[in-house]
Amino acid sequence: MTVGQILVVEDDFDISNMLRIYFSGQGYDVRVAARGSEALEMCRQQLPTLIILDIMLPDMDGYAVCKELRTTTRTKHIPIIFLTQKDERSDKIAGLQLGADDYITKPFDIEELKLRVQNAIERARRENLTDPITGLPAARLIEDELRQLMRRTGWTLIYIGIDDKDAFDENYGFIAGDEVLRYVGRQLIPEVVDEVGTEGDFVGHAGGTNFIVITETAAAGRIIRRLRERFNREILTHYSFIDRERGTLGVSDGQGGTRRAPIMALSIGAVSDADGFYSDIREITEAAAEARRIDRAVDP
To answer: Which site in 36, 139, 162, 278 is 20 to 30 Å from 9, CA atoms measured?
Structure first.
């Protein structure tokens, strides 16, 4: 299990390879991009927990990459540490004004960089900006995004829950349970949104087994259908062969016996501005939660 995913954006192979080896040894999942455009594409496909970003890149400078990340809904929360040979005060200020979280100058002390990485990730989690398991925007950022809905039209909020995960955790343990959350939050939902959603879609982890997607109403149906289709097929890889064949698994009934629990499934509720007027974000989330409960009741 990794402690987070770091994206290193650096065209100097010796430096990027050194950072990849070092931070992999610290328990991080490390990916490397040599160009700014490549880094933006990698972030679009899978959100990193933190980005180490060189300013001097062959295609676009790090400032342009940072600006693109900070003005894109799905990536604006990701901590960014600038890595550069420049040591001018104006360069540092320019990076911080664009929204970078920290700045370190080459040549650097790797232990100092490690601490800066740890601090940036911990700060984001402490401020409820990201979920520690999935790395997705969490409570505070979700609330901010929901408040913006009050000034928009043509939106749909999709509320996604993983049903019967308690039974899975009881059989396979919490480590396996966290892997399911990572699969849904880091792989399934972002990939589906990237495939059939729209450019400005927002993905968040609302806590526990609950996730949200905010999208344009025209894309909502496509996203929901694709999520169900992929989850029902791919979640089976998290189960043993015997449980997959049975289609159920045995769990305690609380009275000394066992009961058969179903394979995990998604329950999904959706609400939009076309459903009526919402005076605050609590009304939106309550309506979405009720729609999800109805979905679970009709498709257990």
So the answer is: 139
